[in-house]
Design goal:
This protein is α+β, with helices and mostly antiparallel strands. The protein folds into two domains: 239 residues, Multidrug efflux transporter AcrB transmembrane fold, CATH 1.20.1640.10; 81 residues, Alpha-Beta Plaits, CATH 3.30.70. It has 14 helices and four strands. A four-stranded antiparallel beta sheet has the order 2-3-1-4. A hairpin with a 7-residue loop joins β2 and β3. α11 packs antiparallel against α12. 34% of the residues are buried.
Length: 359
C-alpha cells in the first residue's frame, strides 16, 4: 500500500521563496508578540512565586475568583483556566514568596468557601519556587536548548561533510566567545543570541553547508513553537523546555534523512543540477517523512486531548513542533544548501570541484 507514489515530483525547491516569506512572517510575528507581551510567559518554575490549583464544583469566572481573594489581599494574582474548558479548574499564581504555604492554603480555602460554599471548592495543590531558584532554572533551561543545538550542529558537520577539524575549530571559537561574553556580564538572553549569531557566522565562514542548514532549521522550529505559546498565552515551564528539546531532536532526525539522500544522489549524478538533486531527494523521502510525522502526531494528539491539564502544554508544544519540524526539513534546511550549491566552480556542493569520496 503506497500513500505516495515513488515517482512523485513536487517542485519544493521552486517554492522556496514562498516558504521563505511564510517562515519569515511567522518569526517576525513571534518577535512582535514577545515584544508586546514583555517576553515569554514564564511559569512559576522560572519566574518564582506560588502556584495554586483550585477546583470548583460550580461554574465560575476569573473575575469572581479575584473578587473572593480580595479579603486576603491577593486580588492582583494571575488567574487562568486550567485543563479542559468548563471543568472548573483554575490556576492562581501569586508573585509573593514570603507567605507560609500552610497559612496561605488555609486562608485561601476560607476566603473561597465564604463566596462559593464550603463543599464547592477544593484546593488541589500549592507549590512555591523562590525567585533566585526560578532565575537559575530559567538560565539552565536556555543553556540546555542552546548547547543541544550547538552539539548537533557539530555532529552534522562531521557526519555529512567529514570536516571534524573545522567542527572542533568552530566549537573552540564559540567556547572562547561565550567565555568573553560571560566575562562582560551580558544577560543570558543576549549571550545566547550573540553566541547563536557567532555559530551561524562560523558555519558560513568555514563553509559548513549542512551544519548551517541544520542550525537555521532548528532555530526556526524553536522560535515558531515559542511564538505559538506567546500567541495562545501559554506558560513556559520545565515540561515545555523538555518538549522543546524533543522537538530539536525530532526535527534534526527528519533533516538528517533528507540530507543523507541528497548526498547519496549527488554522488551518483555525473553532471548534476544541484537544485534538481535536492528536489529529487525530498520527493524520494517524502513518503517516509509524512508517515513518520503522521503516526507521531496521532500519539501526541491523544496526549493533548486525553492526557489532562498537567501535560496539556507539553503535548501542545510537541504538536506544533512536529508540524513545524517536518515543514522545516523540506522548505528550510535543504534550500539553504543552494547558497553554495548554485555557484559552480566555487567549491560548493553543486560544483564539480571536491566531488571525491568525502562528498
Amino acid at each position: 500500500m503506497e500513500f505516495i507514489k515513488p515517482d512523485i515530483n513536487i517542485d519544493f525547491i521552486g517554492r522556496r521563496r514562498i516558504a521563505l516569506f511564510f517562515s519569515g512572517s511567522l518569526i517576525l510575528l513571534t518577535f512582535v508578540l514577545l515584544l508586546f507581551r514583555g517576553g515569554p510567559n514564564y511559569g512559576v518554575d522560572f519566574s518564582g512565586g506560588i502556584l495554586i490549583q483550585v477546583r470548583f464544583n460550580q461554574p465560575t469566572t476569573p473575575d469572581a475568583i479575584r473578587g473572593a481573594l480580595r479579603s486576603i489581599a491577593l486580588e492582583d494574582s494571575a488567574i487562568q483556566e486550567f485543563g479542559e474548558k468548563g471543568k472548573g479548574e483554575y490556576l492562581i499564581r501569586v508573585s509573593q514568596t514570603d507567605i507560609e504555604l500552610s497559612n496561605l492554603s488555609q486562608m485561601l480555602k476560607q476566603s473561597l468557601d465564604k463566596v462559593f460554599g464550603e463543599n464547592n471548592v477544593e484546593v488541589r495543590r500549592v507549590e512555591m519556587v523562590g525567585p533566585k531558584i526560578g532565575k537559575d532554572l530559567r538560565e539552565k533551561a536556555l543553556f540546555a536548548i542552546f548547547y543541544a543545538i550547538l552539539f548537533m550542529v557539530i555532529y552534522i558537520s562531521g557526519r555529512f561533510e567529514y570536516k571534524w577539524t573545522m567542527s572542533i575549530i568552530m566549537a573552540t571559537c564559540l567556547a572562547f566567545g561565550v567565555y568573553i561574553i560571560s566575562a562582560i556580564g551580558m544577560s543570558i538572553i543576549w549571550l545566547i543570541a550573540v553566541a547563536g549569531l557567532i555559530t551561524i557566522g562560523l558555519c558560513w565562514f568555514l563553509r559548513l553547508e549542512y551544519a548551517l542548514g541544520a542550525i537555521i532549521a532548528l532555530l526556526h522550529d524553536v522560535t515558531i513553537t515559542v511564538g505559538a505559546f506567546a500567541l495562545t498565552n501559554r506558560e513556559i515551564t520545565l515540561p515545555v523546555v523538555a518538549a522543546l528539546l524533543t522537538i530539536v531532536g525530532y526535527s534534526l532526525n527528519d533533516t538528517i534523512v533528507v540530507f543523507d539522500r541528497i548526498r547519496e544522489n549527488y554522488r551518483r549524478s555525473r553532471r548534476p543540477d544541484f537544485a534538481e538533486v535536492i528536489n529529487q531527494s525530498i520527493n524520494q523521502t517524502l513518503s517516509r517523512t509524512i508517515l513518520t510525522s503522521a503516526t507521531t502526531l496521532i500519539v501526541v494528539a491523544c496526549l493533548f486531548v486525553l492526557g489532562g491539564g498537567v501535560i496539556h502544554d507539553f503535548a501542545f508544544a510537541l504538536l506544533v513542533g512536529i508540524v513545524v519540524g517536518t515543514y522545516s526539513s523540506i522548505f528550510v534546511a535543504s534550500p539553504v544548501l543552494l547558497i553554495w550549491g548554485d555557484q559552480p566552480g566555487k567549491g560548493g556542493l553543486g560544483s564539480t570541484k571536491g566531488r571525491g569520496k568525502g562528498r
